[in-house]
């Protein structure tokens, strides 16, 4: 399915004085002594629709627009932004950014340089989606979510239902003093539906496994994801979960479904292989990484079945673009090959600092008010081309737990110790699923965990998962990112009982 | 761009429905970020949001809808007023209907936004440069962030609301690392204008902690008497507050619900072993915040119908008992749980609490001292079990003195349960959270908790 050709950047964004504004900023910056100027003119529209049972509880339709101008003067950065889109404002911002760079100079001992990149002039790119969510009448969106919640509420196992949908359209014009100029438009959507049971022993809930992705409102039909089918199974799964026995803490083989494994990949591989983190740029906030540069081409990150790629090209990927926020063309590369750490995520400044010839295109800024920084590409675990299908994976587990759906997540600042929970935990005995258990958390050290990966599912088990809410940097920035992965089996992982953990 | 006040007048005049509230938030910010004792990024930021909330009479009640944009041009005024009305009609009758406040003025309506900018750092930045140089000489690497923000909020309505609030905010964070980054520590400060930021004190703190790490030992997972500095106590309170909507509790789906008794909450139940208080108060000295309620959209924590209501002291835990939950007027009507909007700051005080962090350390015979908590997430909302890590320094205390550093831990704890395990506490002070900046302004004491559950060891440093 590729409708890219038929999709254009919206005329009302193209009608903004994009070229006049970017030329004004670049000319002003250069004339004031900047060695580099880049500018983004952006408009990001975000819709949020939340239903409590069948009634709308929260509705937000917000759009953020503005200009961000970044300069390098005497090897130091300066940045300024404002919400007004005009050539005069762009000139003013270029002046403020140059002044900020001059003020910063005395505090900066590292000379900023950018890795080279070919010039792309006048390029346009639009993501693959069919229906702009903002073209769909509000009432129609409410009806669809109310229908799904309403279907849950018909079951006696479900006391309450909540639906939350978030949809974003990001429009971005980028230009720099090398001569690159790109205009791009991306659309993404995330919907979660959760069913609650309230009983004698408190409450329990279960959430849909549907993942966020770079689709439009067509995502809410039953073609790209079968919502009606998933919703119809949820009440039974919830009833089973309520009645399920509490897990006995200990070591279990885990068969982890892509709806859970994407988050483990995100936290223990995605963030750990950001080169700016590994070098210490995030030491005060997001943290550093155990995968420091001396480990490149040496560290056995995981078992030989482990192949991880970074990319900004996967169709419907949340991190997929045509060009990044420094004018670098989208790419795909290896991060872990046969279990060995072989690559990092880079932007142009970090690439230059690390002596790399080229950035792999991971610069992103979440709003016109924020500077582009290195953000995560789609980081994905490749399926085993000859690996088993899902039934085959289950059949191969003697004494373990199948985990589906993400829930709680936490990992330390060097990305060693993590602990995750999930939505569904199915006990597997002698190759068969024998019923749900609950109160499960799995905890491990990153390299121990990935080295214990003993079976990787085949292409039929592969799902593109992801998140809208990945945080990094100060001031804080949020990014959306996808992680594709097959289901996989991990040998004897530490499983905690969350009720026992809470007890005192 | 059109001045906020004029924009509000024009949009509310253009709105042809029952009432229309327009909220304009203007924000300016300057920030500096550094790593390895050199500046890495900076920014001078101006932002604005204009939210138009329409209140439209529909069958059986009032419907609401809102649209938010960065700016609205003269030619867009009629359009945005109309669009908000359409969103309301599509939504249908609102569940959270309550009488709208009218004809009220707060603050200097007419004045322009008082912008902040890089000048706020004019004294601070050269000092920071000196510390960068000094740290390099002493093989210490400094990483950190300084941010100063001014935000002006105007709330105006067709019904005569003309409310304005100005909020300054600022924070300084500094991580110090030494010995090939094998030692790490952190200092944070909350400030309103950077005039009170004592960089020399931050530097001294970092040096003392790095020195404490010259002796280190391995410590196994287990339960320890643990001293949490005020900032990490504030981080620990975040989820207590973020799960506090009254309706969730009344529906049986929160830690504040009475198990097995439909519709009943735990209000009145003793939560803490000491008669402590957790509350918000817009007049609290050093944490002054908006005296009126602002809601750009409705949700579990807010209702657009409650815009402009006075923000009074809201008591969550009082004398050790659960006292209030976040409730809108419509939820109050449905559940009987009194209106309380949660406020824009958080204060915890423990009667009898006195002394600084050293005074708390001196009380511990055998235990741990933490620096900060990190990556705190909800594991089980039934018990409010949280997980998280210790970060940037865990120290062993013997007979009232720090004897050296130990490894980091992953902990699993419920803050609800921890409120019942307080051994002692210090005086309440204005503090900076490490993880949950969005908790807003905070004042908490250093607290000694008994039997803190360090669940597994983390190799991170």
Could you explain the architecture of this structure?
- The complex is a heterodimer of chains A (504) and B (461).
- Chain A has 504 residues and is of the alpha+beta class.
- Helix content of chain A is 22%, strand content 36%.
- Chain A is built from 11 helices and 24 strands.
- In chain A, strands 8, 15, 16, 17, 18, 19, 20, 21 and 24 form a 9-stranded mixed β-sheet that branches.
- In chain A, strand 1 and strand 2 (55-73) form a beta hairpin.
- The longest helix of chain A has 18 residues, at 87-104.
- Chain A is globular.
- Chain B is an alpha+beta fold and 461 residues long.
- In chain B, strands 1, 2, 3, 4, 5, 6 and 7 form a 7-stranded mixed β-sheet that branches.
- In chain B, helix 1 crosses helix 2 (77-91).
- The model of chain B has no long low-confidence stretch (mean pLDDT 97).
- At the A-B interface, strand 1, strand 2, strand 3, helix 3 and helix 4 of A face strand 1, strand 2, strand 3, helix 2 and helix 3 of B.
- Strand 2 (55-73) of chain A pairs parallel with strand 3 of chain B.
Question: Which SSEs are present, and which pair or pack?
Answer:
The complex is a heterodimer of chains A (504) and B (461).
Chain A lengths: L10 H4 L3 H14 L4 E17 L2 E19 L2 E7 L4 H18 L18 E4 L11 H16 L6 E17 L4 E19 L2 E6 L19 H17 L6 E7 L1 H13 L4 H5 L28 E4 L20 E6 L2 E2 L6 H6 L9 E2 L8 E2 L3 E4 L8 H6 L3 E6 L4 E3 L5 E4 L3 E6 L2 E6 L2 E6 H6 L1 E4 L6 E10 L4 E9 L2 E10 H5 L2
Parallel strand pairs in A: 4-6, 8-15
Antiparallel strand pairs in A: 1-2, 1-5, 2-3, 5-6, 6-7, 8-24, 9-10, 9-14, 10-11, 12-13, 15-18, 16-17, 17-20, 18-19, 20-24, 21-24, 22-23
Chain B lengths: L3 H11 L4 E17 L2 E21 L2 E9 L7 H15 L12 E3 L17 H14 L2 E18 L3 E18 L4 E9 L7 H14 L3 E2 L4 E7 L1 H13 L3 H5 L26 E4 L33 E5 L2 E2 L6 H7 L9 E5 L7 H7 L2 E15 L4 E14 L2 E6 L1 E6 L1 H4 L3 E4 L3 E3 L9 E4 L2 E12 L3
Parallel strand pairs in B: 4-6, 8-16, 9-14, 13-20
Antiparallel strand pairs in B: 1-2, 1-5, 2-3, 5-6, 6-7, 9-21, 10-11, 10-13, 11-12, 14-15, 15-16, 15-17, 17-21, 18-21, 19-20
């Amino acid at each position: 399915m590729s409708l890219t050709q038929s999709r254009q950047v919206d005329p009302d964004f193209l009608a903004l004085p994009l070229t006049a504004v970017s030329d004004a900023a670049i000319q002003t910056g250069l004339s004031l002594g900047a060695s580099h100027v880049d500018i983004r003119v952006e408009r990001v529209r975000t819709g949020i629709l939340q239903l409590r049972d069948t009634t709308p509880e929260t509705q937000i339709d917000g759009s953020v627009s503005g200009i961000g101008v970044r300069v390098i003067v005497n090897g130091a950065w300066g940045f300024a932004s404002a919400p007004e889109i005009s050539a005069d404002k762009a000139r003013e911002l270029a002046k403020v950014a140059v002044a900020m760079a001059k003020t910063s100079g005395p505090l900066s001992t590292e000379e900023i340089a950018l890795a080279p990149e070919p010039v792309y002039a006048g390029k346009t790119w639009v993501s693959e989606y069919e229906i702009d969510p903002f073209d769909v009448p509000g009432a129609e969106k409410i009806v669809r979510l109310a229908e799904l919640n309403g279907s849950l509420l018909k079951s006696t196992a479900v006391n309450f239902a909540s639906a939350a949908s978030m949809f974003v359209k990001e429009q971005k014009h980028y230009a720099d003093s090398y001569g690159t100029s790109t205009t791009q438009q991306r659309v993404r959507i995330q919907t979660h539906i959760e069913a609650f049971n309230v009983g004698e022993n408190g409450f329990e809930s279960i959430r849909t496994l549907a993942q966020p992705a770079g689709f439009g409102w067509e995502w809410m039909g039953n073609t790209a994801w079968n919502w009606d089918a998933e919703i119809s199974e949820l009440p039974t799964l919830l009833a089973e979960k309520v009645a399920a026995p509490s897990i006995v803490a200990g070591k279990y083989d885990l068969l982890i479904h892509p709806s859970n494994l994407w988050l483990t990949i995100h936290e223990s591989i995605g963030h750990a292989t950001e080169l700016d983190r590994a070098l210490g740029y995030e030491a005060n906030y997001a943290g550093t990484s155990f995968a420091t540069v001396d480990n490149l081409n040496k560290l056995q990150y995981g078992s030989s079945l482990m192949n991880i790629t970074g990319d900004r090209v996967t169709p419907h990927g949340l991190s997929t673009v045509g060009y990044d926020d420094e004018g670098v063309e989208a790419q795909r590369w290896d991060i872990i090959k046969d279990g060995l750490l072989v690559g990092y995520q880079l932007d142009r400044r970090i690439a230059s600092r690390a002596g790399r010839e080229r950035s792999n295109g991971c610069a992103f800024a979440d709003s016109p008010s924020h500077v582009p920084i290195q953000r995560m590409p789609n980081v994905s675990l490749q399926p085993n081309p000859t690996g088993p299908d899902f039934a085959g994976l289950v059949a191969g587990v003697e004494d373990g737990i199948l985990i589906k759906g993400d829930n709680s997540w936490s990992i330390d600042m060097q990305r060693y110790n993590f602990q995750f929970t999930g939505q569904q935990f199915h006990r597997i005995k002698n190759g068969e699923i024998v019923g749900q258990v609950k109160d499960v958390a799995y905890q491990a050290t990153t390299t121990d965990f990935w080295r214990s990966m003993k079976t990787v599912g085949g292409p039929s088990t592969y799902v593109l998962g992801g998140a809208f809410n990945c945080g990094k940097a100060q001031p804080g920035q949020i990014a959306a990112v996808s992680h594709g992965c097959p289901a996989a089996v991990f040998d004897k992982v530490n499983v905690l009982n969350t009720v026992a953990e809470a007890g005192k | 761009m059109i001045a906020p006040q004029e924009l509000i007048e024009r949009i509310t005049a253009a709105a042809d429905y029952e009432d229309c509230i327009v909220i304009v938030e203007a924000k300016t910010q300057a920030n500096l970020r550094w790593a390895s004792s050199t500046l890495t990024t900076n920014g001078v930021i101006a932002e604005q949001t204009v939210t138009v909330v329409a209140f439209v009479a529909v069958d059986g009640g009032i419907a609401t809808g809102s649209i938010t944009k960065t700016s609205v041009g003269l030619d867009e005024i009629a359009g945005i007023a109309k669009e908000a009305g359409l969103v309301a009609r599509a939504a249908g009758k609102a569940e959270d209907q309550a009488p709208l406040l009218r004809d009220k003025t707060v603050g200097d309506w007419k004045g322009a936004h008082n912008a902040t900018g890089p000048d706020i750092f004019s004294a601070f930045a050269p000092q920071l440069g000196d510390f960068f140089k000094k740290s390099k000489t002493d093989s210490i690497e400094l990483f950190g962030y300084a941010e100063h923000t001014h935000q002006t909020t105007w709330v105006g309505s067709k019904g005569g609301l003309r409310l304005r609030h100005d909020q300054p905010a600022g924070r300084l964070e500094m991580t110090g690392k030494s010995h090939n980054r094998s030692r790490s520590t952190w200092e944070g400060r909350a400030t309103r204008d950077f005039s009170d930021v004592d960089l020399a004190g931050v530097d001294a703190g970092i040096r003392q902690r790095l020195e404490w790490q010259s002796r280190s030992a391995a410590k196994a997972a287990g339960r320890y008497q643990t001293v949490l500095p005020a900032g990490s106590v504030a981080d620990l309170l975040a989820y207590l507050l973020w799960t506090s909507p009254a309706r969730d509790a009344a529906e049986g789906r929160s830690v504040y619900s009475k198990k097995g008794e439909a519709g009943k909450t735990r209000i009145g139940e003793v939560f803490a072993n000491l008669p402590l208080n957790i509350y918000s108060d817009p007049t609290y000295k050093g944490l002054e915040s908006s005296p009126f309620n602002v809601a750009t959209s409705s949700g579990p924590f807010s209702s657009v119908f409650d815009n402009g209501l006075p923000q009074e002291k809201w008591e969550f835990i009082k004398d050790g008992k659960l006292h209030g939950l976040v409730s809108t007027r419509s939820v109050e009507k449905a559940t009987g749980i009194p209106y309380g909007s949660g406020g824009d700051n958080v204060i915890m005080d423990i009667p009898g609490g006195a002394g600084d962090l050293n005074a708390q350390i001196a009380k511990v015979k055998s235990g741990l001292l933490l620096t900060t908590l990190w990556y705190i997430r909800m594991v089980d909302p039934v018990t409010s079990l949280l997980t998280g890590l210790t970060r940037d320094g865990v120290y062993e205390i013997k007979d009232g003195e720090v004897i050296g550093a130990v490894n980091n831990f992953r902990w699993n704890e419920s803050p609800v349960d921890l409120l019942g395990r307080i051994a002692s506490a210090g005086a309440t002070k204005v503090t900076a959270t490490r993880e949950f900046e969005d908790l807003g302004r905070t004042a908490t004491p250093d607290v000694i908790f008994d039997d803190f559950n360090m669940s597994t060891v983390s190799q991170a440093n």
